[in-house]
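Researcher: Quick test of sequence recovery. Tokens follow.
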């Protein structure tokens, strides 16, 4: 039978809170190790599987207001995904899955690429990427929205950066001053629960400080002030302060995933990618290899 293999797994269920998760943490860790050892013993002698690989391409929905000369992130991925997933069931040329943010779309080839001894499949990779992009653009025809494949939208975290405009809530999942809960993908409980549980596990919300790029107009010292005491304590001088997972997980990239022919080949491939991945990141700033 023709079995369709999906590169990602995202099941629907009811996630536990961090308080509930802690009760089962030891069992999860122990069982996880046992499962890993069991799988390893079962496949460690396996050889001559086909090398399978594929790309995971993340992109951003953007709403343009040409009269006001404004661009905002369009929180429309749940509706778009429903239509894209219906289409992918028909032709199997692409597969669409949700990502962390409600303005993000992630796609993969309908099936993994299989290395058969030559480089012929490389001729289809770019064409498949273009096809997936066209699928989204076709749905956006006649609207004021478009699709961007950039790492980070420049206005993430700025006032009114989403369409529709949403306000951050200090009592929400992330307690962020900048990133509203509505910008987190609402179609699966994983993402908002993950945001809440990490904050509860840390005992504080996320704190990131990025050194400023100083020019002649930058105050010296550069100090931001916030009404929230926790944010004020976490923010550093001469840095841009960010307080939400959305500033990281709300960014996009191209990912490459490999299924090697054997454990030995997987180890060799992993070792070879160690020096290559940093070079790729430096060159294009939005590629990760897994």
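Model:
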């Amino acid at each position: 039978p023709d079995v369709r293999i999906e590169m990602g797994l995202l099941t629907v269920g009811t996630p536990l809170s961090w308080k509930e998760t802690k009760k089962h943490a030891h069992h999860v860790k122990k069982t996880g190790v046992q499962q890993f050892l069991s799988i390893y013993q079962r496949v460690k002698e396996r050889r001559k599987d086909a090398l399978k690989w594929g790309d995971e391409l993340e992109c951003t929905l953007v709403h343009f207001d040409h009269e006001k000369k404004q661009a905002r992130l369009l929180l429309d991925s749940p509706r778009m995904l429903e239509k894209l997933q219906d289409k992918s069931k028909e032709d199997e040329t692409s597969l669409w899955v949700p990502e962390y943010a409600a303005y993000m779309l992630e796609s993969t080839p309908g099936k993994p690429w299989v290395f058969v001894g030559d480089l012929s499949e490389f001729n289809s990779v770019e064409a498949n990427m273009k096809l997936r992009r066209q699928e989204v653009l076709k749905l956006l025809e006649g609207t004021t929205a478009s699709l961007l494949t950039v790492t980070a939208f420049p206005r993430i975290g700025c006032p009114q950066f989403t369409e529709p405009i949403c306000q951050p809530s200090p009592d929400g999942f992330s307690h962020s001053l900048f990133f509203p809960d509505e910008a987190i993908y609402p179609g699966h409980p994983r993402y908002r629960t993950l945001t809440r549980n990490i904050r509860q596990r840390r005992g504080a919300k996320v704190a990131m400080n990025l050194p400023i790029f100083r020019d002649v107009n930058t105050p010296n010292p550069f100090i931001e002030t916030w009404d929230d005491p926790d944010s004020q304590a976490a923010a550093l001088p001469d840095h841009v302060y960010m307080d939400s997972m959305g500033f990281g997980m709300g960014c996009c990239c191209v990912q490459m995933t490999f299924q090697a022919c054997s454990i030995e080949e997987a180890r060799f491939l992993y070792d070879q990618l160690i020096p290559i991945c940093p070079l790729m990141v430096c060159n294009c700033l939005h590629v990760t290899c897994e």
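Residues 144 and 240 are 31 Å apart (CA to CA).
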